[in-house]
Every structure is written in structure tokens, then in C-alpha cells.
What does this fold into?
Amino acid sequence: LVALFYFIEAFMIFAFSRLYTRKYKYHQGLAAVMVDAFYANITPGASGGQIMEAYTMKKQGVEVSTAASIMVMSFITYQICLIVLGAVGLFFSNGLLSSIATFDIDINGTVIPVPTIVFTIAGFALNVFVILILFLMSYSHGFHNFIMHRGINLLHKLRLIKNPEEKRESLRIQVENFKIELKRLLSNVPLFALMLICFTTC
It folds into this structure.
């Protein structure tokens, strides 16, 4: 099952890459996935996985910008899949989640029982929030301007951001990449459906 998981992930990298180049091979996708898995497990917060995956793909002849686009499309598909599966799971749970034992949180000797369903709903809400923010940033000019100006200025005043102009430019590039890759993904319905199936299987 573990091997199958990596084979499916490699197929997804391979399928996304074929949108850009016909020279990319399945075994290259498998190598990139294994490099990602290795570095994700040896770096704090799995922060090195995607960076090294992009580096590996560059070594394989894929442009870094293309590798980044593939990862954005993969992220979009993954988030949508999580939201759909989460909604289906909550709908068909029939009270099963609420019947699962509570999770005890100990604060200075005071034990607070928290129902497991709270964590389930919080996780689902977080995934919805992430994809919703990306869509709002991409298609709502008012929200986009609010985050790009007032939001970043506030974070700068709180000393959470050192260089606001650099952060604005970085955020602008990320939003533009999201819009481009979302359009590319949704214009290829068969591939999008296949990737959703792959993510569901994983």
C-alpha cells in the first residue's frame, strides 16, 4: 500500500508534467516523488520536500517555473478533494463522529474533555478557508486590495513582516500563478477528474 501510494503520486506528477512537455517520463516522476518524501521527512515542518522536488525536476529538464505550476495545480486539486471528501464524510457520518471518545486536554492540571468532532470540523473548516481565501484573492478585487494594502500594512506595524513591498510582490505573483493554473486545470476536465480520483485513492 505504501508503494502504491508513491506510484500514484508519481503518476500525478507525470500527468501534470505532460501538460508542458511530452518528454517527461513516468520514472522521472517517481524519482521526484521519492526525493520529496525523503526531504519532507528530514526537514522541520516538511519544508524541504517541495523545494527539492522542484530542484529534481529542474535536473530532469523541467523549468523551475513549470515545476512550480505543477505544484500549484496539485495543491488546488488536493484542497478541492479534501473539501469534497470532508463534506461527504460529515454528511454520511450519521452521528458517528459525535459518538467517538473525547480528547482530553490538560491545562495546569485541569483536564478539559473536547469532543473529537470539534477537531474534525476545525480541520474541514481550515481547508475550506484556505481555498476560499485563494479564490477571493484571485477574483475579488476589493478583498485582494484589502489584503495587499491594509492587511500587509497591519502585519508590518505588528512587526510580523519586515519588508512590506517585497511581501506584496511575492503575494501578487502567487495569486497570479493560482489564477493561471486554476484556469489551465479547469480547462482540462478529464485530467482534473482523473487527478481527483488519484487524490481520493491516496
Summary: The first strand starts at residue 103 and ends at 107.
